[in-house]
Design goal:
This protein has 228 residues and is an alpha+beta fold. It contains eight helices and seven strands, in the order H-H-E-H-E-H-E-E-E-E-E-H-H-H-H. It has a five-stranded antiparallel beta sheet with strand order 3-4-5-6-7. Strands 1-2 form a two-stranded parallel sheet. Helix 3 links the parallel strand 1 and strand 2. The protein is elongated, with a radius of gyration of 23 Å.
Amino acid sequence: MPPDEALHRRHRRDRREQVQGGDRNQLAHVAELAKEATAQDTLIALADRGYYEGYEILECERAGVAAVVPKPMTSNNAAAGFFDKRDFVYDDKADEYRCPAGSIAIYRFTAEEAGKIQHKHWSSDCQQCHLKPQCTNSKERRISRWEHEDMLEVAQKRLEGAPEAMRLRRQTVEHVFGTLKSWMGSTHFLTKTLPRVGTEMSLQVLAYNLKRVIKILGAATLIEAMRA
């Protein structure tokens, strides 16, 4: 089994074992459930930055789900005033990066970091480069590239090609959250422990869906569909 595939399986196992209290490891699971519920061969999944995670996007692509998720802007280099990774242009044929100064950062070695196989690149020209003060405080600027980063680039291009996607997501989803919070009041959940809270949330969502369908189709149509 390839090393990165083993890491991928480990990620999926760890995700299943985690208490599902956050969004970061939920994208592929929720997308697959939506794909099954809608009986569609392909699906587009719109999500906010909280759902961005490399393995989750990779799993979506493998499952026939086109993930559209903005990348969190958390670059330490950008925060420090240095060039961001987006300023380095990758050549997939040569497996090398061109830096803002025009030098070539070639592949050097591979390492595992935070559960991902990362390829390391840097240029031999860094120490003499006139742009080094804008690039790094280290001996050279090292650029990491994940084994499956091409999938992240596909997702990024998809997002850039649909600038209205995040606006559509907000219009479709955010008012639902607001309505549910309004119904539930300031105390939100009345029960305790995850199973009970899950049941309570499911009832809230069911009530919302029923009211929404009645509003759009009418009660008679809904009753007829439920009897069919």
